[in-house]
Amino acid sequence: MLTWGEQAARERVLIKLGEAGWENVSALILASGIPPRAYYLPSSITGRPVAVISQTRPEEVPRGAFTFKTRGGPALVLSTPGSKALELCGELPSDLGEALRSCVVNVLGFARSVAVAEREGEYVVE
Description:
Order of helices and strands: HEHEEEHHEE
Helix content: 40-55%
């Protein structure tokens, strides 16, 4: 039976194991010859928010593609951490403060609390 003695130890292990994914993606990008330039595209273009690694900004991205060809050569489609966070958080309230509390505090556990204030047309998040 395997048990975790400490929450921080478990988090360190999970982060370390996750590094394999980053190393593999980095190696794939370098081996493909694609310059390390990312274009972040909204779901209105691709069906979900993604980062596209390519020489030039693509006009469109084939739905469900992992790789495809652009004018400038090959392109690689990657999920963004923010997209995955939104998948975990699910549907969020329209109020910014409530949405941040729901997602960042309750689901992701990145913070203990979140406060949002609007000042002179800008939002301040603490």
